Amino acid sequence: MKFILMMHAPWGETGDWQIFKYPPQSFEKHIEFLTELNRELEKEGVLVAIDGLAPPNQAKLVKANARGGPPTTDGPFPESKEFLAGWWLIDVESPEKAYEIAGRASAAPGPDGKPLNMGIEVRQVISGSPTEGRLR
To answer: What is the pLDDT of residues 47-64, one digit of tens each?
Structure first.
């Protein structure tokens, strides 16, 4: 079963990553934690893909207008206090394993070294086959 684990980070006043304001040692510990988690997931054979995302102040929301053109607006999260910071795509045997991994990711250390307990949204990836015309 494939799951996407989406890391939601606090939205700063500037629309930028708050981790860039961490003291250098705290920033390094945060990155070391996530790097080690990624190594463990690779070693366990469950990591399919992983990526971080640029901060919201670099995002644009695109919607077709009546003429089909792509007007854009600043950032997709005007009313949100959190944003999607990155994601893991994992292939595990059960939802419970996906939840366990999300719990590990949530515990990344913050600027004071304590776990951030940030929200990790867990959603099963549903594959569709165009030839079958149904979800599987």
So the answer is: 999 998 888 777 777 777
Residue 7 CB contacts under 8 Å (≥ 6 apart), including other chains: 84, 85, 86, 87, 88, 105, 118, 119, 120
Mapping DSSP to helix (H, G, I), strand (E, B) and coil, where does residue 116 land?
coil
Domains of the chain by start residue, with CATH: 2-135 (3.30.70.1060)
**In this predicted structure, what is the pLDDT of residue 134?**
47
- pTM of the predicted model as reported, rounded to 2 decimal places: 0.77
Q: The tokens of 132 are what?
A: 């079958």
Comparing CA positions, the residue from 103, 85, 95 lying closest to residue 124 is: 95
Please tell me the predicted confidence (pLDDT) of residue 136: 45
What is the DSSP annotation of 32-88? HHHHHHHHHHHHHT-EEEEEE---GGG-EEE---TTS---EEE-S-TT-SEEEEEEE
